[in-house]
Amino acid sequence: MEPASVVWVMVSAALVMVMLPGLSLFYSGLVRGKNALATAMHSFSCLGIVLVVWMLWGYSLAFGPTVGGIIGNLDHIALSRINMTPRPGQQIPELLFMLYQGMFAVITPALLAGAIAERVKFRAFVAFVVLWVTFVYCPLAHWVWGGGWLGEQGALDFAGGFVVHMSSGVAALAAAHVIGRRQGEGGLESHSLMLVLLGTGLLWFGWFGFNGGSALAADAIAVQALVNTNIAAAAGAMTWLFIAWNHKHKPSVVGAASGSIAGLAAVTPAAGFVTALPALVIGVGASTVCYIAAESRINAMVDDTLDVWAIHGMSGTWGCLALGLFAAEALSDGGLFSGNGDFFVSQIIGTVATWILAFAMTWIIFKVIEATIGLRPTAEEEALGLDEVEHGEAAYLSFAGK
Description:
- The protein is mostly helical.
- Helices cover 68% and strands 1% of the residues.
- It has a single domain (3-399), classed as Ammonium transporter fold (Orthogonal Bundle), CATH 1.10.3430.
- It contains 15 helices and 2 strands.
- The radius of gyration is 20 Å and the shape is globular.
- The mean pLDDT is 95.
């Protein structure tokens, strides 16, 4: 084991954990005050729900010995035989690798929660998270990172383009379609843009661990990933800001925040495989693609409350394909612009496979929950607000029932 690498990945795991309260603030600030606490609870509760699932069976399904390249077996159920011995090719204990990867599993359904904000029962959300992590996240993580078929056929994902952002964004589209539109929905009614900005800052901060820690070592690749992360976030923020400024004649605070998240998400699959200039291009492209998606007819037809599909689904898609274009020969086998067309094809295959799995399985899971324990509160309960109805508490007393 390499002590510096152990310390860096420990710190990175903590940085990724900080993204959960950051996401809770970001999402809760974007919704109405009467739903702020319930919305934050959806994201924050994933820390408890997913980490228990991950410890009991999720890690084994994702990173256990492969069964036909599709799923891991149950050799590591309840962390059986997971100890201080590194996995092959790594410099850190597998126990630490398990913890770090668990934080990725936590944040993925938490991202998805923004699509169904203000209109889902908490018990339905808990059931959904358990099923979704088991039947979507774990198989996909295995396909890409755990020795499964996508990784074997050449697809690359440095820190979660396929596994985290594309999967959560595409799943958000399916979830919003099944659950339907909000009662009396007439657009986003953000109650606190200050919370949005604070949450954005925490997400940006945590993303250094999200991408930099994925090198699994304190080395030059981690440094490159940190630099690329910062560049893409800055480029994404400025691009969205200026597009919205030109389109709607006002420099939007929410737009700048959304653009930074789009840039961060898009560079995630490429962070350790590209150099700085392509990272800038990826950030610019991410905000352009995501802004178009957010303003598209598809997004207008499906009430994805917080634009999870438009921002995470499309930025993840763009980022994985952009990696196929811009991958540097010094950091990988190169991409299409380096003459490696086969790699670009692998990224396309990974994109199609991720879209199919995430959309189809999410649709099925939501339909099963709808038919059993139910998904939505009543119209009267939604009008009252989920803070009071679901939790018997309120983020702000002045917003109770408003």
